[in-house]
Amino acid sequence: MYKARRFIDMRKLLYLLAVALMLAGCAKTNSERMKQHLTLDSAGGLITRIAEIEVNDGCLDAYLAAAHNVGTKSVETEPGVICIFPMQVREQPNTIRIVEIYRDDEAYQAHLQTPHFLEYKQGTLHMVKSLRLVDTAPLAPETMPLIFKKL
What we know:
With 151 residues, this protein is an alpha+beta fold. It folds into two domains: 1-43; 45-149, 2-Layer Sandwich (Alpha-Beta Plaits). Helices cover 55% and strands 23% of the residues. It contains five helices and four strands, in the order αβαββααβα. Strands 2-3-1-4 form a four-stranded antiparallel beta sheet, with helices on one face. α2 (60-77) runs antiparallel to α4 (115-124). The protein is globular and about 40 Å long. The chain starts with a helix and ends with a helix. The relative contact order is 0.17.
């Protein structure tokens, strides 16, 4: 009985050791990925963000027009603006998400100073109930050129 129990305990120990090693391997992989993205961003790489906006009741049509206008002008006229893609949440029409992608921080800072962005910002202040900017790290930045080729 003692030998059988010792064998089972040893199997459990080996199993737990194998699981721990697998998790350590995954953590190392994720850690390496995060370092790559942080290095990319801190070295002047892509700036990616999602703007989460809730629009006040009664202002939706005017806000949608302003968001469409600034997005279009930014992409058309600013070389460092890769994407400004406003979207409306279907089940919550006053909820807007904007995917923003800039070549680097310099391009983002330049965007903030453009007449069309300043007009948008000042013109929509009273329309916006809440704004949250979520900075993101792309998981596969090497696929970016492929995304836009598909359009």
